[in-house]
Amino acid sequence: MVAKQANSPARTDYAHDMSDLDDLIGYNLKRAYMVVQADFREALGQDGLSPRVFSALSLTIQMPNITQSSLARELGIERSGLVAIVDELESRQYLVRTAVPGDRRVQALVPTDAGRKAYADAVATVRAHETRLLSSLTRGERDSLLRMLQKIRRIEAE
Question: Any idea where the HTH marR-type domain is (predicted)?
């Protein structure tokens, strides 16, 4: 019987079949994120900021002089993973590392004027991308989705 199945033609018409995955929230969140991330990258262009770099810039704008350790914590990533992100922002001249008085081992991140300008442009583009991408949702649905996602994120802090 196994040999018979192996010789049968491959099936390609699965588009409308329900999968166990369709009922899993994690799977749907991941697939939705893939759609949002691809559109985000397209909206910001080939030389634009990646979602992680955009997030890091956003937080340094909102929290000037944040330390690299605090930024890593805020982003939910390892401090070692933050180094490449900060290096990219620094190479673009969007932020500078400064010494923290009293502790030469710690560096604070300070946005530059170029960083603030780049962020203002990027955040406007990202807002337009989200508005366009989520245009099939009502305002109430978008608000509910955002509240639910924030509620899930808060679980990590508990």
Answer: 22-154
Tell me what the pLDDT averaged over the chain comes to: 90
Set out the domains of the chain in order of their start, with CATH numbers.
24-157 (1.10.10.10)
**How many helical (H) and strand (E) elements, i.e. helices and strands, does the chain have?**
7, 3
Contact 84, 46 (CB under 8 A): no
What is the chain's alpha carbon radius of gyration, rounded to the nearest angstrom? 21
The b-or-e profile of 77-89 (16+ CB within 10 A means b, else e) is eeeeebeebbebb
Cα–Cα distance for residue pair 68/146, rounded to 1 Å: 27
**pLDDT number for residue 19:** 84
Q: Which pTM does this prediction carry? A: 0.82
- Determine how many CB atoms are found less than 10 A away from the CB of residue 66: 21
> Which strands make up the sheet holding 103-111, listed edge to edge?
66-67, 103-111, 95-100
- Six token digits for residue 33: 């994120």
pLDDT tens digits for range 8-57: 677 666 665 668 899 999 999 999 999 999 999 999 998 899 999 999 99
